[in-house]
């Protein structure tokens, strides 16, 4: 099979400690002015330093920028209120509706995020020219039609696993983890199409549209995922970025934000309709009725509705308010839990309910009320509100201990990333795609600590089974075997 790939270097080039994407200097300058001139200059400086260090440590040209997304989204969550403070003149405390040490929460979240990044980079290792070129070479060495076939197979398999998960009880989470693998192949396909100089753009657009339509409906609606993976694939395929590619990325992000705003505006009425007033997180109407209701509610929105929803979306993204409330509550009223939350998250996946019938489900709202005293809505109202994993790390270990715990978390994620991108069965683009799914799934400081750790454990176990069972045959079919890609045999 003829390869259209760039040649690999004959020897690894020296790794660089910091690498920055194109146009980052301009973005950092604008954000720096906003952060430093707002009502919280000290917090703004901390945010800017964390941004520069995080981007410099995690950007990898030609590779799928999943670690950068993992960091960038959480940086946005922790810093958005600082940006809003510049434009509104309101302090972080004044923007929240709950009492608490909110400025301290922002500072601890940013510092904790930097600890996660340090551990992530420490075990993932620095980027090298050889690793960067290998990813692109593998993508271009395989005909796009094969990447399309791989995606289609993964998509059909995902639909089957999702259906099975509805009736599998305790096995639903492992099946959902395997079902999410389709995003790895959608991501790789996106990279392949946009790394090519010809053809397949319309085919990709049709697949993107199909995934978008497929994501509509349900109780939570997951349409944001297709935009995220499209964004990551396009960005990875265009590390130098032309003005046309920057426009495409900006358009993708803008459409995603607009749809997120619309969803925020309609989700309460929509959920009340699909659960038929039961206040449960269930769907009791057909798929056609779900989509029809979405369209009806969306077309009835006014400009004022969109404005209110945009503000609500910003409140949802800037997820530090419950952490701030926890700082005021722990240890003044409730003592630190000395690692109990983390221990439960790690051991929970190894305690199947068939053997442990008394294992309680994770009730995040109950947990939030226990450690903040806020009395937030819970399962009875059809919702779950968490403190977030940063806050849970504080509840477990305190201000200093949480930093060590978060560094350890980053080390674990970095080790997984390294094993995926450099392992014998996954080295290169496929491992990068698989690692990206975990990074995207866990890129939210609003995920509770127990649920985050349990999800990581389940995901790694199930993906390891896939890697050592089905993936070797898939790599041979694709032609991604070491003897055909090694520079010694070229």
**What count of helical segments does DSSP give?**
22
Low-confidence stretches: 1-12, 483-490
Gyration radius (Cα, Å) is 23 Å
Query: Structural class of the helix and strand makeup?
Result: mainly alpha
Q: How many runs of DSSP E, i.e. beta strands?
A: 0
Structure description:
The protein has 22 helices and no strands. It is an all-alpha fold. The model is unreliable at 1-12 and 483-490 (pLDDT under 50). The longest helix has 34 residues, at 389-422. The protein starts with 23 loop residues before the first helix and ends in a 5-residue tail after the last helix. The relative contact order is 0.13. It has helices at 24-36, 41-58, 66-88, 92-95, 102-124, 129-141, 144-165, 172-179, 182-195, 201-215, 224-237, 243-274, 287-299, 303-317, 321-329, 340-347, 364-372, 389-422, 429-441, 449-469, 471-478, 482-485. α3 (66-88) packs antiparallel against α5 (102-124) and α15 packs across α18 (389-422). The protein is globular and about 60 Å long.
């Amino acid at each position: 099979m003829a390869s259209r790939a760039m040649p690999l270097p004959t020897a690894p080039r020296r790794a660089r400690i910091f690498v920055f994407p194109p146009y980052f200097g301009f973005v950092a300058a604008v954000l720096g002015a906003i952060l430093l001139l707002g009502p919280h200059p000290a917090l703004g400086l901390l945010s800017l330093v964390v941004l520069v260090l995080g981007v410099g440590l995690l950007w990898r040209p030609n590779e799928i920028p999943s670690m950068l997304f993992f960091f960038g989204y959480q940086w946005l969550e922790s810093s958005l209120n600082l940006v809003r403070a510049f434009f509104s003149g309101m302090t972080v405390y004044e923007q929240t509706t709950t009492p608490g040490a909110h400025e301290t929460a922002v500072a601890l979240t940013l510092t904790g995020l930097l600890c996660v990044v340090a551990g992530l980079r420490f075990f993932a290792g620095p980027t090298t020219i050889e690793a960067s070129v290998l990813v692109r070479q593998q993508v271009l060495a395989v005909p796009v039609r094969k990447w399309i076939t791989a995606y289609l197979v993964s998509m059909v398999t995902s639909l089957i696993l999702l259906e099975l998960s509805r009736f599998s009880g305790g096995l639903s989470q492992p099946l959902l983890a395997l079902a999410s693998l389709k995003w790895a192949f959608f991501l790789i396909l996106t990279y392949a199409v946009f790394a090519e100089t010809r053809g397949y753009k319309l085919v990709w657009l049709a697949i993107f549209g199909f995934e978008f339509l497929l994501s509509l409906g349900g109780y939570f609606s997951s349409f944001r995922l297709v935009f995220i993976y499209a964004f990551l694939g396009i960005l990875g395929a265009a590390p130098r970025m032309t003005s046309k590619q920057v426009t495409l990325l900006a358009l993708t992000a803008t459409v995603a934000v607009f749809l997120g705003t619309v969803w925020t505006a309609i989700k309460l009425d929509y959920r009340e309709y699909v659960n038929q007033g039961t206040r449960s997180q269930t769907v009791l109407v057909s798929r056609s009725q779900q989509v029809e209701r979405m369209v009806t509610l969306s077309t009835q929105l006014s400009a004022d509705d969109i404005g209110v929803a945009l503000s609500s979306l910003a409140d949802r993204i800037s997820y530090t308010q419950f952490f701030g409330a926890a700082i005021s509550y722990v240890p003044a009223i409730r003592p630190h839990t000395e690692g109990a939350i983390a221990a439960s998250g790690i051991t929970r996946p190894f305690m199947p309910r068939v053997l442990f019938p008394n294992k309680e489900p994770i009730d995040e709202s109950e947990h939030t009320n226990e450690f903040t005293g806020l009395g937030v809505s819970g399962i009875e109202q059809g919702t779950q509100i968490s403190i977030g994993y940063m806050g849970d790390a504080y509840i477990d270990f305190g201000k200093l201990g949480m930093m060590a715990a978060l560094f350890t978390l980053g080390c674990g994620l970095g080790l997984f990333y390294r094993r995926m991108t450099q392992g014998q069965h996954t080295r290169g683009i496929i491992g990068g795609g698989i690692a990206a799914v975990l990074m995207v799934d866990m890129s939210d400081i609003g995920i509770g600590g127990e649920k985050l750790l349990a999800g990581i454990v389940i995901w790694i176990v199930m993906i390891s089974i896939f890697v050592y069972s089905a993936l070797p045959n898939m790599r041979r079919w694709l032609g991604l075997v070491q003897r055909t890609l090694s520079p010694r045999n070229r």
